[in-house]
Predict the 3D structure of the following.
Amino acid sequence: MNVSRQWLEAFLRRRLDSTDVAWRLAMLGAPVDAIEPVGVDLSAFVVAVVLEVRQHPDADKLRVTLVDDGSGTISNVVCGAPNVKAGAKYPFARLGTVMPNGMKIERRTLRGEVSDGMLCSARELGLGEDHDGLLTLETDAAPGAPLTDVIDGGDERLIVDVTPNRADLLGHKGIARELAASLGVPYRLPDIAGEAALDLPTPARFGDEAPVGGIRLAIDDRDGCPRFLAGVIRGVRIGASPEWLQRRLAAVGVRAINNVVDATNYVMFELNQPMHAYDAATLRGSAIVVRAARGGERITTLDGIDRAIPPGTLVIADADRPIGVAGVMGGRATEVTNTTSDILLECAAFDPVRVRRARRALGLSTDASHRFERGTDRWGAVDAFRRCIRLIVTVAGGALDGPAVDCFPAPTHPPRIFLRPSRVAQVLGVDLSWSTIENQLVAIGATIVSKPDDGRIAVDVPGWRPDITSEIDLIEEVARLYGYDRLPTDLGAFRPGLREDDPAWGVMERIRLALAGHGLSEVVTLPMVAAAGAGAPKVLNPLSAEHRVLRDALLPSLVHQVEANWAMQTADVRLFEVGAVFNLAANDGVPTETLRAGFVVTGSRAPAHWTDGGTARAWDRWDALGLFRRLIDLAHPAATIQVEAGEWIARDAAGAMAGRCGSCLADAPPWASAVFGGEITVVFDGMPTPAFRPLPVYPAVTRDLALLVKVDQTSAVVTQLLTDRGARHGLESVSVIDEYRGKALAAGTRSIAVRLVFRSAERTLTDPEVEQAIARLRTSLERELDVTIRST
Amino acid sequence: MTTPSDPASLDVLRQRLAAVASLDAAALAAEEIAVLGRKQGELTHQLKALATLALDEKRARGAALNALKLEFEAAVVARRAELAHAASAAEARDIDLTMPGRQLWVGTRHPVTVVIDEIVAIFREIGFAVALGPEIENEERNFGALNFPPDHPALDMHDTLYLDPRGAEWPVGERLLLRTHTSPVQVRVMRAGPPPYRVVIPGLAYRNDPFDASHAPAFAQIEGLAVDEGVTFVDLKATLTHFARRFFRPDVKVRFRPSFFPFTEPSAEMDVSCAICGGIGCAACKGTGWMEILGGGMVHENVLRNCDVDPERYTGFAFGMGPARMAMLRYGLPDIRLLYGGDMRFLSQFGAAGR
């Protein structure tokens, strides 16, 4: 909402400081986003005193003056104004000043007299139309003082951030009401300059049909239009609005159109009541009807666009066709033009939901629709209507043709709400006295109908506050007007909740800390991506094709981030992410989500060091497998890793796929090293509690064996056999420590070295015992796997 | 060898003790055997000889000998350490110790994660636990239960991303969307059991916003909920003021302003004094001296009712804030998109100590 400071000043009858207004409005819930100067910038002008005036020797209408502008130099200035007087002070434009009309003040010579500057009129400063003479300054300010210290030059526009509940703040009167409460001063409507004397009786009440100025008015859709006021004014003279009216509209950022339209806009910005004027001569069939649009109806709106009206949309129509979309925009066919002489003025209340739907369907948001959506004051509409008629007659002439009418088929009153002071204390936590509560309610315009009685008060809500519908709304108003800043801030006692942390939180935190500890950096990527697997849910209304589907895996996004790093010449990339991935459920196709953790690494495994000649070993698949194993321990301890189709696949206890790890395809520059990554579904139920195992008492015996294995035999099979068969001989662990393939071996074979650790829980093992165990294992290997021991 | 009763033998031993500090490695080893050795050591010998003495004498001399033995042992250990240190220093003289050490990659948590963890930690101190919920929600929990009337302008603040039903018919209210705030988790918490509730809810939220310097279509939010008998608006103000002092600095100034959210009433926004200009007004705070950091209020009666909590018996507050914005303020980030990229040059800046 654009608010004019001068307009508010007219309501409050006092000068206001915009910064102070901004603070007060912020503390009342309507923060000011910006304060902008409106109209001319007077900062370049100064106060000057005229020391001497003499007649120009060669020009009757010119005078030559000596001017002191505080600069230390007395200037010779030629002036054409008849009212210039020695000893008086005037606004002065020094050499180099750019005037509001764009003219730059330079030294000139007028008929032989040099002029170094310009004494200014109000019009030359852009302050008004008065060009009778110089703007005389009644001030004690010294010459050279900035002009802005002395006169209230331009207006200021406050951009007020009005929350959707506060319809009343979309008019200056509402803002003035809040400020008046904050300042503790009265407010009332500004006077209309040169207001026409007009005998204006209260519009006559009707049901859903009324005659007005020879035109039949009918409300066919009461739900959509609970109230409709209309009047016909004949004999208006369309033209430009007076300067004060244009200036008000300019200050709130509205273009002046003509005196009638400007008057309706003025009242809308003053009282939050949109109005519309139709050229009465263009109404077909001398009728105006509020009804739901029929199928196939169209309208060319004021902006010149021909629009199809969705059936059911609330429209204003004449006997033949829609002439306006109710609450949104009028039609071009019936608009007020330069040749209009008779108008029908509409002032109505419309259902906010109907206006909102129409606005969305037509994609047409207007000052009117913005207000109707938030709710106008249907009870205050009469006052707004009367003010608009007065304003039109004042600025455009004309006279009402017969009485104005007020169709209010089902008259209602603003709600009455009961407020319990005890509830105020229960919600706010402070005991406010009854008079304090009453003061705040009166400040917003509510009427206290009864004093506290059986613990409650009846309050009549003002019509301009459609947001206040229940007791809690009143309690908020009490707190708001009382001032949030006056409430204490001491932390009181509380009962801690009985809920534990969501188990996923601890798991996510452990993963993050662990992977960061391993040298990886956490990244957050957007969950919506350009492409994903067939089972990925699609966004119905994506903003762009880049974000049209939800990711079903983390690795593609992580690899994408690797590529982005490569584009920045960064070769060493280590990233991880913990986040949701999305899928359509297998059974019913409903989108579901799963928490995942994934990582990707490329480049050097560690920063290069001089002991290695400055080249570091690159990450390889075995590093990735190690990280994957670590991640699984953290995120999904029950999962097992299996080799499937050339990559490592993690499967959960039920055998379902839970993750994968391996090398990743990427769009790599030639200097980049291979990319490896992995991701795993995070589970957070049934995380095992570590079970204590007694520490070994007796020493271990270690033996390394080189085994000759066929190339198609896996190390996993060999180590599994050793583990199974060695258990009863005290074999504590088996680890693969080397692999050799080469010409020294028979074709089709390779060598795997394993390290066996034997230990007994009861005694120190002897060498013969260990040798005997190895002999048994050798037998098992040869018999069961055809694997031989090359050496020990 | 002195006799056990010879007082002079103690003096000799004391002199040898004093000399330990200047022995070289070989002499130290020899002296240790000569004095403390289990078979021929002088002190060992004298201690054994105590047995031959009268009780009085035995007691006095035994104490002296034992004390001396401890001192001697300590002196040998100290001298040995000294010699070892000198030896390694000598070795080190031949090495250029200014050569760089072998470095480790330093991993980092995301700056927004760091901020979230800090926020969670502060609220944990005052009795809050962490609650989480899914990012796919239905309209009812995201809007309806939270007192958003259908066709209300308040919905304009939440440009919603809906999920494609792929031909299926989702009834109104059951339509699936990406949650526009973490608040539906409030509904889930309240519907899971009776009060008291005291939870903080971190998570991602989604809006159909363009991806530009100050907007992202998915962003972190953290939300709080406290409902019990006797929880008041003053408690909200006190809790959030405490939070601001702990998160920013103890002398931070806070300002509570009325605001509007459909799911709270009374509603408030909290500003803190601008850390950049100290409250004078600067570009970062749009000249106001204040930075808006969170919104909150008393849980709306309708929300409590929608979650089967009796609003006459229980009252509570809720609040929410954007950790990404707080991270941008803290670290001076110019563009929110930095937080959604994996640029190592950016991420690696957050691995140092501090916060």
Chain B touches chain A through 96 residues (CB under 8 Å). Residues 7-93 of chain B form one domain.
